[in-house]
Amino acid sequence: MGSIMGLIAYPLGWIMKLLYSVIPNYGLVILVFTLVTKILLIPMAVKQHKSMISRTKLQPKMIDLKNKYGNNPQKYQEEMMGLYQREGVNPASGCGSSLIQLPILFGMLGVVYAPLKYILGLSDEVINKASKITVGLIGKTFLNSSGARSEQYAIIKSLKESPEAFRSLGKDVVNNILDLKFNFLGMDLSRIPSVPRGLSEINWLILIPVLSGLTSLLVSLQSMKNNSSVAVDEASAQAAQSMKFMMFLTPAISAWASFKFPAAVGLYWIFSNMFIIIQNYMLYKKYNPTQVILKAKEEMILKKEQERQERIEARKKLSNLSDVSDIDEKNYKGLSQKEINKIKLANARKRDAQKYGDYDD
């Protein structure tokens, strides 16, 4: 998986490098980068949403099957699979899009974690050399406390504080790193946010974890609302309710993680969450599951009424026929198979009676 994400990260890194050459501000680059990469993923999101809509259309029929075969789980599953086949719906079709998006999402994070590699285009050899110099200056604490994914930001911070110590990297490399602009709205995105111990330590960076948690909470609330609207049965509704725990857990993890990584990573999560909220709003507005369910219910009611009228008409036709030879398959339209079999048996007896003279009209 790591090699796959690496392959994905390189073209995404090229996009980020190109953006930085046009917009020499890391915060704005992350904003535009998030928009570009999320736009590239829109076709997958639309496909996944349409797949969900196709399953949602079956909700009234699924509820009908649940009412009929709810006490027989095996029969219920058989009828459900039959329903999917008849309607041409693959219940797992949306999973593929989600699985494809995962390595892409991790690849995007990999780009944000590594500005030296993807923005400046430094080789792994140069980055490793810079990392050893950083360890010599501040020790391995930056790896132990914030993880390897913050390594390049620690290098940048150390180099800007002690550029002479990195002279062996070459003048051009040192100058390029010094020229990296991480200031965004008064915040240094290369720094890791920390919990202030007093009023004097409060700074704008604290907004990154706060907004990361809040936007993640909004995504969770939106998802829970959308999922509850497409619950097929009681079990699905209960599953949607169980998501309430995740609704608070995910934002908490997001806020906590924002204290472990440079602010640039948290800013990416904020922009990503905001885009997801807007994207989901637009998708659910264009393809509203609630409206789909109502329309499907109306269509099912109309179909049942039409079938009822056809059965009535079929019975009338059969009752008005004087000659059994006039009875053919078209007269059975609207009748159930049980009714058809019963009528066919009666007709067979009627023909035998007429043939052998035992029938009295």
**Which class of secondary structure composition applies to the elements?**
mainly alpha
Number of helices: 16
Radius of gyration, in Å, reads: 33 Å
Give the integer mean of the pLDDT values.
Answer: 77
> Strand order, biggest sheet?
1-2
* Spatial gap, N to C terminus: 80 Å
Give the proportion of residues in helices: over 70%
Order of secondary-structure elements: HHHHHHHHHHHEEHHHHH
Strand-residue fraction?
under 5%
Low-confidence stretches: none
Please summarize the sheet with the most strands. Answer: 2 strands, antiparallel
Dominant shape: elongated
- What's the total number of strands? 2
Write a brief caption for the model.
This protein is mainly α and 361 residues long. It has helices at residues 2-22, 26-40, 42-56, 59-69, 73-87, 93-113, 115-118, 124-138, 141-146, 151-161, 171-178, 207-229, 234-258, 263-286, 289-320, 337-356; strands at residues 183-184, 187-188.
